[in-house]
Amino acid sequence: MFLRQVWTVCAKDLRSELRTKEALNSSLAFALTILLLFSFAFDPGADQIQEISGGLLWMSYAFAGALILNRSFARELFNDCLDALIFSPVPGAALFLGKALASFVLLLIVELACLPVFGIFYNVAWADRFGWHLFVLVLASWGLTVVGTMFSALTVNLRMRELMLPMLLYPMMIPALMSAMHLTTVLMSGQAIGGDHWIWVRLLIGIDIIFTALAVALVEVVLVG
Amino acid sequence: MNAVEAGGLWKYYGDYPALRDIRFGVEPGQCLALLGRNGAGKTTLLRVMAGLTAAQRGELKVFGRPVRDGQARASIGVLGHGIGVYEELSAFENLRLFGSLYGVKDAAGTARAWLDRVSLGNVGDSLVREFSRGMRQRLAVARAFLHEPPLLLLDEPFTSLDDRSIALLQAVLAESLKRGATVILSTHQLREAMELATHVLLLDRGKLTFHGPRPAEMLADPTWLYRRHGEA
B89 to chain A: nearest residue by CA? Predict the structure, then answer.
């Protein structure tokens, strides 16, 4: 029953988004614009690019991701749909996980679309270790999504929510973004993840577990008070 | 067991107490009209009963369970100020979604049946954003009633409804009362409310000033209770 409710909420959000493409289009366009603008600032052939590739990529993902996460609960405000979800028998945790899952899928779509563009703009061989890239994307994006969805619920009734969400989200995500940037840089420079790099993977896994547990435990209080 | 049991509810907005020690019980099958001037606390009380916001003090039980309990919420149907349906989904998808969330066994079949019931069967696959205001209101009625809730919470249900929607709402309300559902409605339209209400609860600036069977005098003069127990 719980998983069905999670899936129902997730499918509803994905269906709504794929019809309007409001968050997806704006997020993708924003990410690609950032990558394009950064490409003017750096020499695509330079070795320096490989060293900062993780940082460039994840800064784009983090900025673009905020646009998707902002819409997560804001889309429920029209017609008081959020109220309709809260007074339905769906547990807060199922509502939260459904919305987080939908945002996670949308964020992954944007990230995967940006990856080859990044490779072209910066002349980086991203496809060599695609499986590992995907592994890092999934781990870091879930952390970003969970915290972002929680703050989206927290700021949904604020007038300045578009500003408040990034201000709350980015400081919280510093450890996850640092891990993701480091691991992506390692992969972009052609190395495999192993040895000392595993500490960053463990950090990402820990962040995902801790923030997911905290969000699931606190979401009812955030939504109802 | 009472359908709703409120024990000493206090709800503050900042320092302002919107509800002050509200205590009452509603037996199954009753139709309770929540009355009071603007700002008396009717909507706040309905929001607490719907589980949309928590009271700071006191407890509220729905059929013996805390209101945020899943089974308690599954037994409630709410029709509030917002229609609570998604613009970018079709009418059918909206009803199937809520049917599924409420655990209705054949959500798709029930959604189709309710679309026919509210005369939206022929536009069921159209997106709600293409609907007129009246069509949206009828869809909202279907959304609130499709899981046949034993408790209905209606906040100003007749306000700004068109004639067709009023007739539909009156019909489904009458049917719900007939099958033994409990109805709690807040309204300023006293005459319509008095035709339905078996009991009346009057709020005055967050305080409960009267709760009991609808006084016979209110049929002839709906404002009688205000003069007797509330502000004039």
Answer: A16
